[in-house]
Design goal:
about 140 residues, mainly alpha, Arc Repressor Mutant, subunit A, 2 domains, three-stranded antiparallel β-sheet, 7 helices, about 10% strand, WH-like_DNA-bd_sf, MarR family transcriptional regulator
Length: about 140
């Protein structure tokens, strides 16, 4: 079966997206290390800083196995950054949630990520909105599609 060919513009866009992703991951890993966290721990902490979540939902969002999430939560809990608590809607379900120190660490981590902020700051609000909308369409998360 023949390999489908892409036009030069599509190829360039794919390459640019790859470069952005690689640069973001590199900076994210460096920022996480600056807070004595692995990249996975930092991503989980950032996710939980938005809202407490059950392990299954964390695994879905991080695209990993629930057993991996348990280990990461265990390590963050040992550092006092995360705690487990009962879900107020269903006491059988345990939620992982940030502690006040975990919230503070997540804020410092976000503040240390310059890569996304600096290039995006050079774009106008209209350009950032267009970029956001295009990315949502690419990921099929835009409710308008």
């Amino acid at each position: 079966m023949a390999t489908p060919r892409t036009d030069p513009l599509t190829h360039e866009v794919v390459e640019l997206i790859g470069a952005v992703v690689a640069r973001y991951h590199e900076e994210y890993e460096d920022a996480a290390a600056g807070h004595n966290l692995t990249g996975a721990q930092a991503r989980l902490l950032g996710l939980l800083s938005l809202e407490p979540l059950p392990m299954r939902r964390i695994a879905e969002r991080l695209k990993c196995e629930p057993s991996n999430v348990t280990g990461i939560v265990d390590r963050l809990e040992a550092r006092g950054l995360v705690e487990r608590r009962a879900d107020p809607d269903d006491r059988r379900v345990k939620l992982a949630a940030t502690t006040p120190e975990g919230q503070a660490t997540a804020r410092r981590l976000r503040a240390s990520l310059d890569f996304a902020r600096e290039p995006l700051a050079a774009l106008s609000p209209a350009d950032r909105t267009t970029l956001r909308d295009l990315l949502r369409r690419m990921l099929a998360t835009d409710p308008a599609n």
